[in-house]
Amino acid sequence: MSHVKNFPTGFFWGAASSANQFEGGWNEGGKGVNTADIITNQKDGFLRLTTPQIDSDKYYYPSHEASDFYHNYKEDIKLFSEMGLNSFRMSIAWARVFPNGDDECPNEEGLKFYDNVFDELKKYDIEPIVTISHYEAPLNLAIKYGGWRNRALINLYVKYCDTIFRRYKDKVKHWLTFNEINCLTVSFGAITAGAMIISDEENTEEVRFQALHHQFVASALAVKLGHEINPDFKIGCMIAYMCGYPSTCNPMDILKAQQHDQMKNMLCGDVQVRGYYPSFAKRYFEENNINIVVEENDVEILKNGTVDLYSLSYYMTNCVGTDASKDKASGNLIVGLKNPYLKASEWGWQIDPEGLRWVLNNVYDRYQIPIMIVENGLGAEDIVDENNQVNDDYRIEYLRRHIEQMSEAIKDGVNLIGYTPWSCMDLVSLSGGEMKKRYGFIYVDKDNDGNGTLKRIKKKSFYWYKQIIEQNGII
Ligand code: BG6
Fold first, then answer.
1. What's residue 1's pLDDT?
2. Which of 223, 249, 384, 447 is the most buried (most CB within 10 A)?
3. 182-231 pLDDT, tens per residue?
4. Would the pTM of this model clear 0.85, i.e. be above it?
5. How far apart are CA 113 and CA 133, in angstroms?
6. Which of 332, 349, 372, 444 gets mutated to test ligand 1 (max ligand atoms within 8 A of its CB)?
7. What integer pLDDT is reported at residue 27 of this predicted model?
8. Mean pLDDT, rounded, of the chain
């Protein structure tokens, strides 16, 4: 029994979700089609620009119903309250507010839906932490504008922010501008996050870094605007921390790991927290012939729109090295090299609680602003037993070990203010569109093909987490 007693009063103990993986109601209440809505559950199920039409006879689209929070939000929020959550990370579906992204007026019914959700959360004293764009954008923005590679998206995003900031200014205080914004530094997220629907040939670093630059500018403008609308707003960046250890003590591997950390993790933090591009990025762009258009005002905009808090997702770590023949390990957003000291999840993601302490210290040393862990969790294939119970001891073990390391980081002096593990209840997995890869504290009866009653069952981890929250982290 270890005793973890040092979590600050008011610590955000929550759980996380995203609209396109959780909400459902994809074509209800005047919502437009999101980029996520045309993704099927096939492993390579991304439909491209040539076929953006929904063909439900031919394909199954997991986001369309997802876990159906849209119709069950009252019951679900009641369950969150029973679990003791004092915060809930969710995202707003942009196309529910602006169905085409470039509409003149917002969709009132969509805005009302989130009013209802926030009011319901308030009823139970659950603080919403809202991601403004979590791997989606109205599909029209991809088709008509080519997604974030087009500078026009900046103003459309800021208009969307202006609408939701004003509407919810007394209901939401914590905002995150883009989920895992650094996914654009790797190939994977280009389609969903960039809302670009690009062909493989177009998926170049130059296009992705240009899109990323537009998101940086949009984020900075949103931060400034948010503070004008409500000075109490706390607005954060959200980085997928892709921790890559050197695979050996060969200085070449150490350097390679440092460069990985700089370009994959630090670049986005530096721009969003410090307000300017770091010098290593400039060298990288030059050496790789990446020419992005940065307008004159952009430098000023980035400087004036720095975030109040740094949020991150952390699931696993990999190794980075010069010997490419070494065994590969999969992971969140990137594939790296295997680490012989770590065990992996069923999906091959290497479990590394101590790595979380390292990451928290690394980030805090550099930025010195409050940190929130807004995603962390274990994807596993849960089984409902004959007593209708889910004994997910492996998930408890994973979370317990990570919470212990959070505690150690707090003792190191890190200003960690919240933890919203992935996920509040089972939802669609991002990488494969599966339901089988479950993360929730609450089981949702649904399979990979969309069959099931959607019935909710509290897992063993539900009761365990409730106790952790009640005791403010004492394990
Ligand atoms: C993060 C995303 O990268 O990882 C989530 O922000 C995602 O949307 C989570 O669900 C887990 O990944 P996956 O692919 O296992 O669902």
1. 47
2. 223
3. 988 886 555 655 556 666 677 788 989 999 999 999 999 999 999 999 99
4. yes
5. 17
6. 332
7. 96
8. 92
Question: Domains of the chain, with CATH numbers?
Answer: 12-240+353-470 (3.20.20.80)
Q: Per residue in 313-347, pLDDT tens?
A: 999 999 999 887 777 777 777 778 899 999 999 99
Predicted local distance difference test score (pLDDT) of residue 264: 95
Among 424, 431, 438, say which to mutate for ligand 1: greatest number of ligand atoms within 8 Å of CB: 431
CA–CA separation, 366 and 372 (whole Å):
15
Please say if 386 is a catalytic residue: no
Atom 8 of ligand 1, residue of closest alpha carbon: 430
Nearest to 47 by CA among 434, 437, 433: 433
Decide whether any atom of ligand 1 lies within 6 Å of the 180 Cβ.
yes
| Candidate from 264, 311, 375 with most ligand 1 atoms within 8 A of CB, to mutate | 375
Is the shortest distance between the CB of 461 and ligand 1 below 6 Å? no
CB-count burial class (<10 Å; 0-12, 13-18, 19+) for 60: middle
Gap from CA of 430 to ligand 1 centroid (Å): 5
pLDDT digits (tens, 9 = 90+) for 410-462: 999 999 999 999 999 999 998 888 899 999 999 999 999 899 999 999 999 99
Confidence at residue 117, expressed as pLDDT on a 0 to 100 scale: 98
Distance 471 CA to ligand 1 centre (A): 28
Banded pLDDT at 60 (limits 50, 70, 90):
confident
- pLDDT of 17-31, one tens digit each? 999 999 999 999 999
Confirm or reject: Cβ of 434 under 6 Å from ligand 1: no
